[in-house]
Design a protein that fits this description.
- By secondary structure, the protein is mainly β.
- Helices cover about 5% and strands about 55% of the residues.
- It is built from one helix and 36 strands.
- The protein is elongated.
- The relative contact order is 0.07.
Length: about 400
Amino acid sequence: MRKLFRIRQQIILSMLTFMVETAQGGNCTGELGVYVCSGGITDNDQTIILLGVSGKPTIVTTTDGFGLSTQSNYSMMLASNGNGITLIDDYKSTISSVGFGMYVSSENGDLFVKLTGDVINLGDIGRAAIAASISKNAEELTLQVANTLVTDHYASAINVSSFGENGKNITLIATGDTVSTNGWGITGTSYADNAYITATNIIAGIGGISFQNYGNGESIINVTGEIHSMGKNAYAVNIINSENAKSLIINVNDILSEGSGIYAVDLGSGTGFISITTTGLVTALGNGSYGIFTQSTKPISINVQQDSLIEGSATGIEIQPYNDVIAKKDVAIEITNSGTIRNISDLSSSNAIKSQWGMYPYEVTHTIVNNGLIKGQILLSSLTGDNIAGPIMLVAFGIYLGE
C-alpha cells in the first residue's frame, strides 16, 4: 500500500505541475457587486481584488476559458462586509499564485464558493492554496473545491474558518486531490455550531486534516479515498471538539501515516458521543504511534468494518478519559470489529487495544464485539492498575492471542 501511495503522489504532482505550466489567466468586470470573470492568462496577470458593496450581495461567475496565474501573494481575493459572497466556477478554471491562490472572506452574509478547476499556491511564505472564512454576522460557509495544491512550508492546501458569534455551519466538500507537499491538507478553526468536512484524497507533508471545533454543535468528517501524511510526529486526522461541542463523527477509508492515524478528542462533558468508522487500511508507522487514539468522557463507538485494518506501533486502538475530574459516570465504550486490529509488530505480546481510566470510580462499560481478528493484548484497566468499576463485556468470535 505504501508504494501505491507514493505512485499516486507522483501522478498528482505531475498532473498539477502540468496544469500550472500550461495554464494562462484573465480578468473580472462588473459593478455593484456583480462580476463576470473571463479571458485566458497573459504573461502580465495581476491580482484580482473584488470588494463587496454595503448592503448588497457579491456575486461572481466565470466564463469558459477563464484562468489566472500571478506571481503575487494573492491570485484572487474577495472580501465583503455587505450581504454575503457567491462565487461559482463551472468551467474548470485554473487559479494559481505564489501566495494564496484564492482568499475569500465574508463578514455579514453567507459565503458560498464552488470551484471545479485547480487552485494552486507554488510559493514559500506559508499561505494556503485556498482560504475561506466568515465572521461577525455571517452564518454559513460552504466551500466546494476540486484539486488543490500548495508547496509552501507548513501551509495548508485548504483552510476554512469561522470567527463570528452567529456562525451556524461550516461545510467543506473537496471532490478531487488535496495536496500539500510540505504542510497540511486541510486545516480549520470554527466557532460556528457545526462543521462538516468531506474529502476524497489527501496527500500531505505533515498531516492530512487538522480541525478544531469551538462551537456548540457537531463535527462530521468523511474521507472516501486515501490519506497519506508524512509527518513523523503528526496525525493523519486530528480533530478536537471543545467544551461546548457535541458529537464527533469520523468516517475514513485508507490511511497511511508516517506518524499516527486518527486523533479524536472531545474536551466536553455534555451531551453527544464519539463515533469512528473505518473501511480500509489504517497504518501508523511512527514510533509510539496509534492507529486510533481517542480521548473523551462521552460514549465512544469504534466500528472496524470488514477488510479494514487498524495498526500502530504503540497500540492499534487506544482510549483514554479526557479529564479525571469532569469524567461522567456510565460511560459506554464499544468496539465492533469485523476486520483486523493489531500492533504493527504483529506480535501477540504487543498491545492491540488499550483503554485506560484513572483513579476515579467511573461506571465504565467496555463492550468488544469481535467478528474479525484481534491479534495482541487487550488491556482494559484503570491508570492505577485497579480494575475499572463497571462491568467488562467481551463478545468474541475468533480472537487470536497466539503466534
